[in-house]
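Quick start: what a row looks like.
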Amino acid sequence: MSTTPLALYGPGLAVGRDVQVLHRAASREFSGWLEHTRSAGGCARPIRLTGTIAAVDRNTGRILSEQHTDELPDRTLYTACGNRRESACPDCAWVYQGDAYQVVCRGLTGGKGIPASVGRHPVVFATFTAPSFGPVHHRHVPRHTCRNRQRCDCRPAPCRARSNAGTCPHGQPAACFARHDVDDPRLGQPLCLDCYDHAHQVVWNYFSGELWRRTKQAIDRHLAATCRRRGIPKVGIVTASGKVRWVPPVRVSHGKVAEMQRRAAVHFHVLLRLDGVDPDDPDALVPPPAGITIDDLEDAIHAAVRQITVTTPAHPDRPQGWLIAWGEQVDVRRINTADGELMDGKVAAYLAKYAIKATEATGHQSTRLTPATIDDYADPEGGHLARLIDACWHLGRPTGTDIASGAATAGGRQGSLDTRPNAYAGLRRWAHMLGFGGHFLTKARRYSVTFGLLRDARATYRRAEDDDPTDIVTVGALTYAGSGWLTEGDALLANTAAAQRRQARRIGREELAHEAWLVGAAA
């Protein structure tokens, strides 16, 4: 068992990172410790577990060996945190981003259990935006002449040029003639904080998932109605009970990524793929019927966006509720078509990039807020983000009559004694996300592979790489002991070793690809 570096120094003695590294590297158990931390190497804050680990025969269930974590280096078992956010753990986010790319791309091209024929199904890439809650500073380039949008140096138009705009009711200018740079901190900020409807925006973020769900249902209904008008019959599917269930002959499978804009309003990038229905195998991915085309899918999307709105439940601050609808900017583009400008690999990489982000674009990053920490972030008279967080906390307060005093609740950030829930209670839980509580990457069941399948495949590959017996499984009875490396020196050593392993794998893949190219060229 290895002795932790912290145990060798007296209390109150500051130990430098270099000293920690030298002590760990000079220990006799260093090689074993490095191999022990390999599964969590690179993770910023690995999870430390204690308990018993047993090797069990898969066929008989007999315990072949048993070991307690006290016998391991540092008397603990390390496992990666698995956080998808790049700002929290770059290494785990890198793994998640790769999985997200596979989830999105396999639904476009097939592979990993998805038939390659899906690459011939009609697919569109749609962007659904939030409406305006007040004018904000923005950057608009009327005509791009740059070759790379990520390094765009084109001259933008004036932000909000108005010849007779004047001022708002609060005395703030209603125009902005600045040509904002990409990194201008004013981008996304309201022209007037008092005019901006912060409450409506956080409610929109909170209910945007329900708006999408109803929009997806409307798209399905519109396509089903199109099939009826064109005489395309329904498909009969025999259920487990032996009854026949008649369903439309076309279905839409989707993969969706949420992106937080700089104004802190969420919007959705969605891949929508047209599939048919096989009555003999309802789970099979087959092409849509010949009478339904990509034009019909586009029409269904635009029709659903115009039709679907959500009226939220009554709130003491707004008895009529808020209207939740899509913004005017709904962009629909075709993928992998002769007249389309987008290709599957580029779209998959674009979506995977946003799957590892959350509120970073807004400038706000925090963990879940509590009554003890809310005042550090929320301020009804503060900046844009402070007002949004305050709106989440204020609208999510318990409502009704104060049991202690018999008076109506005042609705301060600290809440009241009445704990009866309301439809907006979740706003407090998601105040650190500015009201949005949904997953940043979701998909339809039939769209593609799952994250779980990819993780299982990776674990199987690692067992084969380490020559682990396939008929032996590891079963652990473990409890949480803490998070993070024991010292900064341990973190540096483990992360450096992980980076070297990744670099070696990348070079190996490039060499194999080059050898395959040489063989093909010689043939």
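That is the whole record. The longest strand covers residues 472-483. Residues 488-522 form the longest helix (35 residues).
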